[in-house]
Amino acid sequence: MWEYTDKVKDHFLHPRNVGEVEDADAVAEVGSIACGDALKLSFKLDENKRIKEVKFKTFGCASAIATSSALTEMIKGMTLEEAEKVTNQDIANYLGGLPQEKMHCSVMGREALEKAIAIYKGTVPKETEGKIVCECFGVTDLEIERAIRENNLATLEDVTNFTKAGGGCGNCHGAIQEIIDRVRGELSTKPPERPKLSNIQKIKRIEETIEREIRPSLKLDGGDIELIDVVGNRVLVATRGACASCQASNQTLKHFVEAKLRELVWPELVVEEVSQ
Ligand code: FES
């Protein structure tokens, strides 16, 4: 049985913006009913090119409906440039976290948004140019590669949780493992671009990254974190606001806060929660 946050339950039981926008500027469909999840997203822009109206129709599980509903609430009022920056992790964070096994629902939301924007702009989303690796769920090599890079995935199970690839007959497991090995190999053999940081530089960059990249997403959901100390590569933080009482805060710290700090400050940082 999955553990859902109250916000996931609320968006599932009372989904916002259900339906199809009349005279939409763009309509995109992703997933397929045969594969168990499908999402149709439509939006209309106002005279300032901001998303004025956005609606969804989703076939799928509770978290697929909740993530679609959350996505529409998040992007209303945004420009397309702002909406393009919304990641699947932002959608999961908005909902206070999702079970790992349901992260693919947030990926489906992000894919629908990207496809709708691409349709509006008359371009083709990059992943649709890839080669199908998982026939059961129609997932391409580029989609798998992107999920690994963006979410720091390391195992076949991770890839299935985030993309559904590999969750059916299993024929694609070998091909998925090859992609994981290649991408992780590339990530680990990347030349060390970063010079060694002094402790003061490290703390400064952590503070800047929290302020610029992490806090705004947490605040969308009424949450926050405070940097308490940095001991070597251990980043000690305390959760605040809605994060302090959220059951999924560990997941947020690991898969969002730590992943961002590793990406933008230092790849060996480990985030630990302390009570203060
Ligand atoms: S081909 Fe990927 S699970 Fe069947």
Distance between the termini: 32 Å
Q: Hetero groups bound?
A: FE2/S2 (inorganic) cluster
For the largest sheet, list the strands in their spatial order: 1-2-3
Shape, principal axes of CA atoms: globular
**Low-pLDDT stretches:** none
Main beta sheet, described? 3 strands, antiparallel
Report strand %: 15-25%
| Count of helical stretches | 10
- Mean pLDDT metric: 90
Walk me through the structure:
This protein is α+β, with helices and mostly antiparallel strands. Helix content is 46%, strand content 18%. Helix 10 links the parallel strand 7 (234-241) and strand 8. The model has no long low-confidence stretch (mean pLDDT 90). Bound molecules: FE2/S2 (inorganic) cluster (FES). FE2/S2 (inorganic) cluster binds next to loops.
Tell me the layout of helices and strands:
Layout (H helix, E strand, L loop, with lengths): L5 H8 L12 E7 L4 E9 L5 E9 L2 H14 L4 H5 L3 H7 L8 H19 L10 E3 L4 E2 H11 L4 H8 L9 H17 L9 H22 L2 E9 L2 E8 L7 H16 L5 E4 L3
Parallel strand pairs: 7-8
Antiparallel strand pairs: 1-2, 2-3, 4-5, 6-7
Helix pairs in contact: 1-2, 2-5, 4-5, 5-7, 6-7, 6-8, 9-10
The site of FE2/S2 (inorganic) cluster has 11 residues, from loops.
Cofactor: [2Fe-2S] cluster; Fe cation
Protein name: Nitrogen fixation protein NifU
Function: May be involved in the formation or repair of [Fe-S] clusters present in iron-sulfur proteins.
Key structural traits:
single chain, 276 residues, alpha+beta, three-stranded antiparallel sheet, 10 helices, binds FE2/S2 (inorganic) cluster
